[in-house]
Amino acid sequence: MESNLGRLPELLLFGMIAAGANLVGGLVLIKAGAHRFGERFLKYLVALGAGFMLAAIFIEILPETVSLWTGSRSGENAAEAVVGAMTLLLAGYLIIQLFEHTIAPHFHFGAETHPESFMRPSAAYTAVGGLFIHTFFDGVSIAAAFLVNFRVGLLVFIAILLHKMPEGFTVASIMLASGRSQKKALLATAAIGAATLAGVVGVALLQAKVQSAVAYALPFSAGVTLYVAASDLIPEVNHNEERNPTVSIVVFVGVALFYLLHKLIGLLDGLTAVRLG
Ligand SMILES: [Zn+2]
Ligand SMILES: [Zn+2]
User: Fold this and answer.
1) Distance (Å) from CA 275 to ligand 2 centroid
2) Measured in angstroms, how far is the CA atom of residue 229 from the centroid of ligand 1?
């Protein structure tokens, strides 16, 4: 793990790509006017993203978290240490339940088709505000993973990137459904992107001051990611006006692709290690 700010340009680059995908998602809705093709494409991206995120949490982030928290401890001591990390994970999960679904009156991923839910003018802003918290932690996840090492960072970045376009699309569609202008819809999408970037920069700056910042940021943001994958994206996959099992299959494809990528990058890592050693 590195603590200096030398990694900041690299982190900013990946943060900017993720934020850019939010904007592209908003533009797809506004420019194409929720074109059938665009909507269909994003549905598959949501399913693929859900599979990638679930796999990233369980075969990438959690093993790294356990290793950070146990260090050289073993047995009862190690189990005791892991309780702290898992409590942070639970807290990360619950904070999104609070902001997206307890405080906000109405939120779901995908095209907003319930304008009646946004009769109260502030309702759309509350929904976007909840998503703002979630996207901030998208950025935290990306930066924390890169600070563990480049391999973990790249895999977590790809997993999160896949749902960034649908996310921008969701924000723009909430704004339009509540009667806001296209310009306001695009501004809200830009704000969501900016929150992602703020999460990346926040972790990088914190890690420069507090050596162990990553150890806390990683499980907490994993809890957020778990919520997004299992409680926001999967319901969107399952909720189809016309039953469409192919979208559901894409979740499994996402998990399989992530696993292959994980193996492939591990293999390349091993090869370079051999050559350097
Ligand atoms: Zn709705
Ligand atoms: Zn997100």
Assistant:
1) 38
2) 18
Q: Which two tokens stand for residue 136?
A: 């901030």
Sorted by where each begins, the domain ranges of the chain are 5-276
Centre of ligand 2 to C-alpha 190, Å, is 13
Q: How far is the CA of 277 from the centre of ligand 1 (A)?
A: 56
CA dist 153 to 59, 101, 141, 221, 277, Å?
13, 29, 9, 13, 23
40-91 confidence digits (pLDDT tens): 788 899 999 999 999 999 999 999 999 999 988 888 999 999 999 999 999 9
Ligand positioned closest to the Cα atom of 127: 1
Write out the H or E segment, with its range, that includes residue 45: helix 36-56
Q: State the burial class of residue 59 (Cβ atoms within 10 Å of its Cβ: 0-12, 13-18, 19+).
A: middle
How deeply is 248 buried, as exposed, middle or buried, from its count of CB atoms within 10 A (0-12, 13-18, 19+)? middle
| pTM as predicted | 0.92
